[in-house]
Design a protein that fits this description.
The protein is an alpha/beta fold. The protein has 3 domains: 110 residues, 4-hydroxy-3-methylbut-2-enyl diphosphate reductase, catalytic domain (Cobalt-precorrin-4 Transmethylase, domain 1, 3-Layer(aba) Sandwich), CATH 3.40.1010.20; 84 residues, Rossmann fold; 85 residues, 4-hydroxy-3-methylbut-2-enyl diphosphate reductase, catalytic domain (Cobalt-precorrin-4 Transmethylase, domain 1, 3-Layer(aba) Sandwich). It is built from 11 helices and 12 strands. The protein has a 5-stranded parallel beta sheet, with helices on both faces. The chain has a 4-stranded parallel beta sheet with strand order 3-2-4-5, sandwiched between helices. Strands 7-6-8 form a 3-stranded parallel beta sheet, sandwiched between helices. The protein is flat, with a radius of gyration of 21 Å.
């Protein structure tokens, strides 16, 4: 039997779950413990099939819209990405037991947009059209109060009323480098534009991109574990590609990993998007270990210790009626 070829593996740290994702999953699991199944969740709680399927197995029912949730005491949870204001209003009208699992860093962007609107400013949102977080942020204010831009070209094409005060906010899961370019274009075109007091791109997105940048310079390939519809996972793959890595793969799990694309590769870095559980990384490592003699090391660019408490109605639940 021929010896397995050697493969140097660099595990990026930080990787995987962020505080907002951990909190969102804890919201669903705590609601199940307190109220029992079923618990209804509007949209995917986070963008990861493994997480969603494991919560389904525990009794979570995922729905597209509130209309699918029956009236009654069963909780209805809003996903970590945030929702338009119309959603909690509808839940209140129907008397639903709504629990908001929106990431606090997304809520921060919502509050910034609302504050700018109250001051009479028109808001420019940097983000990806159709992403649930963007839909939620746009839905915080009346139609027309926010203009969405995705890149420098869209900034160049902007035509806004003369004399109107402007401010910008951003989606939390964007590429740090791409967003910096878009912001520069906005400031060049609208020098008086108000910017966030603290960057809107979340700490976890920034930290994971920083780790991938460092690792990509040292390896032949980068594997990003995450879902296709996960914005922060897609950005990690793009960051690796931009750093010159000749093979940059985004895979949801080991079954989707094309081992042929690693042919002749001597080194690989592995990271995971903020909604991908560590077990999926472990399964990728197991898959590689079947084919290679692994030399595994960890590259840590930053320590993370962020924690977000559960929503108040789960920390101090109302006593169940007898």
């Amino acid at each position: 039997m021929s010896e397995k070829p050697k493969l140097r593996v660099i595990l990026c740290s930080p990787r995987g779950f962020c505080a907002g994702v951990t909190r969102a999953i804890d919201v669903v699991e705590t609601a199940l413990k307190l109220h029992g199944a079923p618990v209804y969740v509007r949209h995917e709680i986070v963008h990861n099939k493994y997480v969603v399927d494991s919560l389904k197995a525990k009794g979570a029912v995922f729905i597209k819209e509130l209309a699918e949730a029956p009236a009654g005491a069963a909780p209805v949870i809003f996903s970590a990405h945030g929702v338009p204001k119309s959603v909690p209003v509808e839940a209140q009208k129907r008397g639903l037991n709504a629990i908001d699992a929106t990431c606090p860093l997304v809520t921060k962007v919502h509050r910034e947009a609302q504050a700018h609107f109250k001051r009479g400013r028109h808001i420019i949102l940097i983000g990806h059209a159709g992403h649930p977080e963007v839909v939620g942020t746009l839905g915080q204010l009346p139609a027309g109060a926010i203009t969405l831009v995705g890149d420098r070209a869209e900034v160049g094409a902007l035509e806004l009323p003369a004399g109107k005060e402007l401010a910008f906010v951003t989606q939390t899961t964007l590429s740090v480098d791409d967003t910096r370019d878009v912001i520069a274009a906005l400031k060049a075109k609208f020098p008086q534009i108000e910017e966030p007091p603290v960057e809107d791109i979340c700490y976890a997105t920034t930290n994971r991109q920083e780790a991938v940048k460092a690792a990509a310079k040292l390896v032949d390939a980068v594997i990003v574990v995450g879902a296709e519809n996960s914005s922060n996972s897609q950005r990690l793959r793009e960051v690796a590609e931009r750093e010159g890595c000749r093979v940059s793969l985004l895979v949801p799990n080991v079954a989707a990993l094309d081992f042929a694309s690693l042919e002749g590769i001597g080194s690989v870095a592995i990271t995971a998007g903020a909604s991908a559980p560590e077990i999926l990384v472990e399964q990728i490592l197991d898959g590689l270990a079947e084919r290679y003699a692994l030399e595994v090391e960890t590259l840590t660019t930053r320590e993370e210790n962020m924690f977000f408490p559960l929503p108040r109605n789960l920390r101090d639940p109302a006593p169940a009626s007898s």
